[in-house]
Amino acid sequence: MSVNLTLLLVMGVLYACGIYLILERSLTRVLLGLVLLANATNLLILATGGYAGLAPFFSKGTDAGDYNDPLPQALILTSIVISFAVTAFMLGIIYRTWALARQDDIQDDAEDRRVAKTPSFDAEDDAEVPQETSEFPLAAVAAGHTPDHPAAADHPGLPGSTPLNDDEGGGPR
Amino acid sequence: MNAASLAPLAVVLPILGAALTFALNRNPVAQRTVSIGLLALTLLLECWLLAAVWTTGTSSVTLGGWLPPFGVVMVVDQFSSLMLVVSSVVSLAVLVYATGQGMADGDQEAPVSIFHPTYLILVAGVSNAFLTGDLFNLYVGFEILLTASYVLMTLGGTGPRIRAGVTYVVVSVVSSVLFLIAIAMIYGATGTITMADLAVKLAELDPATRNLLHVMLLVAFGIKAAVFPLSFWLPDSYPTAPAPVTAVFAGLLTKVGVYAMVRTETLLFPGDTLNTPLMVVALLTMVVGILGALAQSDIKRLLSFTLVSHIGYMVFGLAMSSVTGLAAAVFYVAHHITVQTSLFLVTGLIERRGGSSSMDRLGGLAKLSPMLALLFFVPAMNLAGIPPFSGFLGKVGLLQAGMELGTPLAITLVAGGVLTSLLTLLAIARVWNRAFWRKPDDAEYPDPVLKDTAAVGLLPRTMVGSTAALVVFGVALTVFAGPLFQLAGNSAEQMLDRTAYIHSVLGADATVPGIAAPGGGTGPSLQGGAK
């Protein structure tokens, strides 16, 4: 199988530019990068078809090896259609970003930033004495390590609060 | 007539439905009827396919009269028909849920006239990806479902959705380009893209070339399946979409990637050349994913991270390339599609009843809506792998297969699997404690809706009903785990054996190459497909 060197060089340049462009933060450049990548891939598929041959229409007396391989061209046609649709959609998204935020940059995920900034200490999870978070106040009274917990006084008339104080691990977690 | 001759209908019916619903976009009632009706019909057809394949074995159909090594084939075997049935059950439930939501909101949330056609196109793409026996057609299937998913992801065009949509689209397009490059290289190396023919011809390639192609395909599918280093995009983009859309994405899209990985590993590149890296990646996916889940305070984001984490289990089962491991992985995929989708649907309900999906704003839901609590509790315990449920059975299957294999790496993965299961339980318990059990007043920023005990009409019956149906289906997977495991075992055996698949496509006289030895090709079998 012989390969057209010019095609290969063009393909390499397209890939290089495409990868450079999708690493940018500007959406328009990312889109251009994706278009270049798609076209470079089309050239790659074309290259797998081998050398340029006769158009693949059957004619008597022509050796089968003289025809061009039609399959890669069918694949390229499909992939052109797909990348066309995706490009159109991306343009729509970019326009919408511009209409909404007046900017062309990829934005950070606000929730992601917030979670990343959250301190590792969590008031509820890491508290020494667990806060009462349950619907059932009994469990909070039974928080083990303070036998004469004043919490019992906070809930007057709780049946059975005193014996529960001796129990282990009635924490509300 | 064999079973597969009706298989293309599984793709054609949803596309027909998409065209009809698009034409009917002024008439929401007709739109709903058509899309639900056609999807139900597709489900029936797929159940019939599963039954037919169960009795008569793998069968294939060639499209357009082009014979196998040249034309596009569709292959129905036990694995693909099982995936079809589960995915259709899930997509039907989500469709009913979405119509319920649309009716309740007066179609304010989403331009519903666009939703129905796009959703059906998505289903068609998923079916096509499951059925196809041609690598390029698999790419087309992926593109159909991805393009539909771009539209669904950015439905309504609000700021956060557009932001998430950009990430999602760019990552998906890059993975598709990688897949296309891999296809081009495979075609250059072997001169065919029919998967059965490739199974024969790839075995004759130089091992270095073969490994290169193998890795390229796995990377492309790994992005789609959200396997650890390539999973960064998922928790970023899924949570912003409308609840039913997130649910169907979580259930189906990553699993299509897993399905493609399974086919790559078993049909195209059998053997254990890449098993060690796959296992390491599986371990990292499980552990890193679940640690990410623990840090989240938004339920949708938390579930997205558990989704990533549990993909690790499937990759683990796949990486063992033993019948028991693969069978457990197949079972786990079926279980996980159902459970993860139900959890996202319930989160949609939580958001409606509690006003938010942030755990800082929720509380006391167990008292406000016991039904909601039950609907959350069952799939949540199922996900964490608490004994009676199918999640437990799938995990036990995986762990057993790991112990059977017995290598130090497999044992490490078994330990990692148990740890991930426990951490999942912890993450789920945090949601339960905060959103359901504590008093609304204890929430950091309680949502006013939580105090309104008399609020009615927040949970439409259609939405609760479809969620409940899916939860019941998840429980049914537990009840019928025996037959399901048998089905999974059969399909794993068939996939590892490959004879049925290759013979069904290329004819009974095709040579099935043995597992390619690291040394190189295994002999001449080039004439396999020429009939």
SSE order of chain B, one letter for each helix or strand: HHEEHHHHHHHHHHHHHHHHHH
Identify low-pLDDT runs of chain A. Answer: 145-173
Query: Rg of chain B to the nearest angstrom?
Result: 22 Å
Rounded to an integer in angstroms, the radius of gyration calculated over CA atoms of chain A is 34 Å
The helix-and-strand class of chain A reads mainly alpha
- Tell the overall outline of chain A: elongated
Q: Assign an overall shape of chain B.
A: globular
* Secondary structure tally: strands of chain A: 0
InterPro entries (chain A): CPA3_antiporter_subunitC, NUOK/Mnh_C1-like
Main location (chain A): membrane
Family (chain A): Belongs to the CPA3 antiporters (TC 2.A.63) subunit C family.
Keywords (chain A): Cell membrane, Membrane, Transmembrane, Transmembrane helix
What features would you describe in this structure?
The complex is a heterodimer of chains A (173) and B (531). With 173 residues, chain A is mainly alpha-helical. Chain A has 2 domains: 103 residues, Helix Hairpins (Orthogonal Bundle); 58 residues, no CATH class. Chain A contains 7 helices and no strands. In chain A, helix 1 runs antiparallel to helix 2 and helix 2 packs antiparallel against helix 3. Chain A is elongated, with a radius of gyration of 34 Å. In chain A, 18% of the residues are buried. The two termini of chain B are 19 Å apart. Chain B has 531 residues and is mainly α. The C terminus of chain B is likely disordered. Chain B contains 20 helices and 2 strands. Chain B is globular, with a radius of gyration of 22 Å. In chain B, 72% of the residues lie in helices and 2% in strands. Chain B has a domain of 209 residues. A two-stranded antiparallel sheet of chain B has the order 1-2. Classes of the chains: A mainly alpha (173), B mainly alpha (531). At the A-B interface, helix 2, helix 3 and helix 4 of A face helix 5, helix 6 and helix 17 of B.
